[in-house]
Design a protein that fits this description.
Blueprint lengths: L2 H36 L4 H38 L6 H28 L9 H9 L2 H27 L2
Helix pairs in contact: 1-2, 1-5, 2-3, 3-5
């Protein structure tokens, strides 16, 4: 095993760990912790716990985004420079990257709201923007990105086998 192969192994491992942090932490925060905080009678405690854990998890997500970008660039160049990169592979990869960018945008919106830099306005457009940028949407997008990764792996392996 050469240094290039070792680098790719580390990049795949880092990409996988970042996925676990992002989706696992997001699922916990959205599906479990959020519900429990909404059910607390003491709204002040719920707000403090939500803000503190949200800020801490936000730091982990920011780190995961850096890992995604660095490892994603390395892994993309590796795959696109081989004979396993077909037109189908490129289309699915482009969709995966677009969804990941949407996810990054949602997270940046959360951070801007937390820092008071994003004004929430009432109205129909705001409702659509809220739905497209909600924590649940973020989880669904993450699940779709993981599915697309599995599709990419299959397309790549099939192209290498010539099937």
């Amino acid at each position: 095993m050469g240094p290039g192969e070792l680098l790719l192994i580390v990049m795949r491992w880092a990409h996988g760990l970042a996925t676990i942090v992002w989706l696992g932490g997001g699922a916990y925060a959205t599906l479990i912790q959020g519900r429990q905080l909404r059910e607390l009678d003491d709204r002040a405690v719920a707000a403090r716990v939500g803000a503190a854990t949200g800020a801490e998890f936000g730091r982990w997500v920011d780190a995961a985004m850096i890992v995604f970008i660095v490892s994603g660039v390395v892994l993309t160049f590796d795959r696109l420079s081989s004979r396993g990169a077909t037109v189908q592979y490129g289309v699915v990869l482009a969709l995966k990257v677009a969804l990941a960018l949407w996810m990054f945008g949602i997270v940046q919106g959360f951070g801007a709201r937390r820092r008071g830099r994003l004004r929430v306005t009432p109205g129909r457009v705001a409702a659509v923007r809220g739905a497209l940028g909600s924590p649940r949407t973020l989880l669904w997008l993450g699940a779709i990105v993981v599915l697309l990764a599995a599709v990419l792996k299959t397309l790549y392996e099939n192209a290498l086998r010539g099937t």
